[in-house]
C-alpha cells in the first residue's frame, strides 16, 4: 500500500506515469491502474472491510467498562438494560459478554 500512496503523491506533484514508474521501479501498467482506481473510487483499497459493523462505539465501551467496574456482580442482562436506558443502544446480553471478554473481563 505504500507504493499506491507514493504513486498518488507523485502524480499530485505533476509527475508523469513514466517518471513514477521509473522512480518506484514498478511497471507503467501498475501505475496507470492505481491512478485509474484512485480517480474512480477515491481510494486504492481492493476490498471492503469484511463482517458487520461494530455495535458498540468507543463511548459505549467506556460506559460498559465504567458500569462493570462500579458493580462487578451485575449480570449481562442487567448491564445490557442499563446501557440501553442510559445510552439508547440496543444490545443483547451476548454482545455485552463478547465486549467484556474483549476488554479482559471474564466470569
From TrEMBL:
The lineage of its organism: Eukaryota, Metazoa, Chordata, Craniata, Vertebrata. Residues 46-71 are annotated as: Disordered. This is Transposase Tc1-like domain-containing protein. It comes from Staurois parvus. Residues 62-71 have a biased composition (Basic residues). It comes from the Eukaryota.
Amino acid at each position: 500500500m505504500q507504493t499506491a500512496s507514493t504513486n498518488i503523491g507523485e502524480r499530485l506533484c505533476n509527475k508523469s506515469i513514466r517518471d513514477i514508474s521509473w522512480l518506484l521501479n514498478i511497471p507503467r501498467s501498475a501505475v496507470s491502474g492505481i491512478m485509474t482506481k484512485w480517480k474512480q473510487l477515491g481510494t486504492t483499497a481492493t476490498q471492503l472491510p469484511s463482517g458487520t459493523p461494530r455495535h458498540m462505539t468507543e463511548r459505549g465501551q467506556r460506559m460498559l467498562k465504567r458500569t462493570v467496574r462500579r458493580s462487578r456482580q451485575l449480570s449481562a442482562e442487567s448491564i445490557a438494560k442499563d446501557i440501553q436506558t442510559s445510552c439508547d443502544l440496543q444490545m443483547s446480553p451476548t454482545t455485552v459478554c463478547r465486549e467484556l471478554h474483549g476488554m479482559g473481563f471474564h466470569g
